[in-house]
Amino acid sequence: MMINIDLTPKAALEQFFGFKKFKGEQEAIVQSVLDGRDTFVIMPTGGGKSLCYQLPAIMMEGTAIVVSPLIALMKNQVDALRGFSDVEGVAHFLNSSLTRNETLRVREDIAAGRTKILYVAPESLTKKENTEFLRDINISFFAIDEAHCISEWGHDFRPEYRRLRTIFNEIQGVPVIALTATATEKVQEDILKNLDIPDAVVYKDSFNRPNLNYEIRPKKDVQREIIRFIKQHAGKSGIVYCLSRKKVEETAQMLNVNGIKALPYHAGMDASQRASHQDQFLMEDVDVIVATIAFGMGIDKPDVRFVIHHDIPKSLESYYQETGRAGRDGGEGKCVAFYSYKDIEKLEKFLQGKPVAEQEIGRQLLADTVSFAETSMCRRRFLLYYFGEVYDKDNCKSCDNCLTPREQFEAKDDLALVLRAVKESKERHRSKFICDLLTGTETSEIKNYKGDKLKVYGEGEGEGKDNHYWMAIVRQAVVGGFLHKDIETYGNLSLTETGKKFMAKPVSIKFVKERDYSDFEGGVDDEPIVRAGAAADEKLMAMLKDLRKQQAHKLKLQPWVLFQDPSLEEMTMRYPITIDELTQITGVGPGKAQKFGKPFVDLIAKYVDENDIEREAEVTVRNVVNKSMNKVHIIQNIDKRIPLESIARSKNLSMPAFLTELESIVMSGTKLDINYQLNDILEADSQQDIMDYFRNAETDDIEAAHQEFDGDYSEEELRMMRLKFMSEVAN
User: Fold this and answer.
1) Domains, in order of start, for the chain
2) Strand, coil or helix: what is 63?
């Protein structure tokens, strides 16, 4: 069905899409595009951005070119548009996934005037044959979806997006509509400037999604917490975001063996597999998709009921967009993120080696994410403030901080002191400098700027008043409008008029005590990192570590070879008193339990009896390896000396995911002989050097090994050697 171009937008909306009315400002946006005006749309996920360019494209003469970074989203939207029309060629996409014959078919439909919308990846626009072809067709307008990719301050910056204006000029001079779901004021400025559309009509919808519930949890027992949460919402659709592809594969597998239908989704999978997993999720053959944070999913599913962040994202824009996939139909949407500062430190490491300006931007975005995670004020208010919107309610009644409010305290004197510190330091420093200044912390920055000579230096010292405390005051002062944080200077603080008035005449003001996540610095590999006060039973933890040290000394092994710290910590929570129970501890399989476990379960059984401890029944995370259908197949093929790459391909696994599977098998106590593979890739002397390293190393961390050998060996080689070491020494 093609549209009569003489119809009004409302009539066309009903005729083509079957909707009787527009949402929000959709009608005005559509009319702006029809009038040939450059248009900029900032509309939250689920607000109906796609219709803003799809409807005018259908109504106008020619073909609209839509630039999108997501191949999955292109396919999804093309399928949906074809479903509304009796002309199959009404919508097409042009990207690297097409064969030559498919590309020719697309061009034929466009040339014949059948195609109203063409989705292209930015890379496809740079190809000479495509630009030459597009010059000769009638283009109605250019649309840039996910326009935040243009800005270095955007959460998904893509350098190829910066060239779009130049490419458009080379093709045809037609109007532009740019659309994004997440854009701070800085990002908005960047988009308008880079696309050279300073006079564009700007439509900005509210960022508030009242149906979403925001919650941040400390990253402790994250696997068990995720399983418990999903089972409490059984039968509902949800998304779990992870930081790495490896963690996506592991988490999807872990959910499946615990009775939850889940599939992985990340950029390392081939296009057909991603499309298959996406379709199974859309068709509700599976309940949960596990995806990487770095790879946009492009799944338009209205009834996603929960979004879980296994790892905290690198920016609040990412967090907002990803949580925005929940409740797009206006129904329930629960957003749970597991927070650990260890994740932030890992994200900071990713910034190393990048240009200085890019590192500064990345650190500022991370600092804002930390502030959001650690704040005790209304999360909705904090989030909306970040996007330049004022939320004037005291309690949103749908975030963890408002549902379980923290204690308030009189902050008049503390706020006045922070404002004075900003003023005395000439309004040219960031939050960390101000906190170091108040606590009297001697840092190189404090000395370089002579902060230790200022009157306010050290005036914030006091019981419980550390940098964490003062950072909380600064955050609430910024959101409260007393301080301004300048994005251009990466977060320098200055006084606002409200702040100056408060300094002149301080009045009573209540702030909330911040949450403290410092006891929950869980690692990015799920398990909490053991530190003073982190174990559930500190006394038992000390006893288990002493026992491990004794046993390791007796066996002439490093303690971590027996049981790693996270395994000991889990023992202090679950008190296993039999070998069978010990095998259910993460990182302990039947082989390891049989070889090393008896003295440990004997000690725990005695401790439980002497201290009259009642062991509680709780959610048990089933070990992936125990239930893995791959295990027997893998062991048999390794025994046949089949190349590891071939075995991985036969199980449809990437090499990193396959090595994770092997690590799980070895961790359970099963020996694997992969010498036939290692002998092909490493000299005997090199193997011996790495074996000696692991024999004496205090940790099995691959990154530490990589640094020790100055990058002489790849991560894959080191992981395989660790497998050899654990098989020969620990099992």
Assistant:
1) 9-204 (3.40.50.300), 212-401 (3.40.50.300), 408-512 (1.10.10.10), 538-621 (1.10.150.80), 625-730 (1.10.10.1390)
2) strand
